[in-house]
Amino acid sequence: MYKILLILGIAACLVAMPLFWLTYNQPRNLEVDFLDVGQGDAILIKTPGGQNVLIDGGPDKTVVKRLGENLAWWDKRIDLMILTHPHDDQTS
């Protein structure tokens, strides 16, 4: 009985995962997140088309932690990074 339930559970997961990917609709709104990276802010822009734009990065790797908190687990890609001015507090 245990093996049958295990097989049914695995089968249900294998069916549910493709259904999620086929039916998932990305939000149609522009989203702007201001990320506290210590010295100043970094700005993460999520476009309706699914692109991620990062403006400035801060003085250290804090931006990586903040991006991990604000990006979906399946989309950890930055499509464009904009550096507003070349100071140590802006690059990572």
How would you characterize this protein structure?
The longest helix is centred in the first third of the chain and has 22 residues, at 2-23. It is elongated, with a radius of gyration of 19 Å. It starts with a helix and ends in a 10-residue tail after the last strand. The protein has helices at 2-23, 62-70; strands at 31-36, 41-46, 52-55, 80-82. Helices cover 34% and strands 21% of the residues. The mean pLDDT is 82. By secondary structure, the protein is of the alpha+beta class. The chain is built from two helices and four strands. The chain has a domain at 27-82.
Which ranges are low-confidence, i.e. pLDDT below 50, for 5 or more consecutive residues? Answer: none
Termini gap: 55 Å
Percentage of helical residues? Answer: 25-40%
Q: DSSP strand (E) fraction? A: 15-25%
Number of helical regions: 2
Number of strands: 4
Mean pLDDT: 82
- Which strand order spans the largest sheet, edge to edge or round the barrel? 1-2-3-4
* Rg over alpha carbons: 19 Å
Give the H and E element order.
HEEEHE
How would a crystallographer describe the biggest sheet?
4 strands, mixed
**What is the overall shape?**
elongated
Structural class estimated from helices and strands: alpha+beta
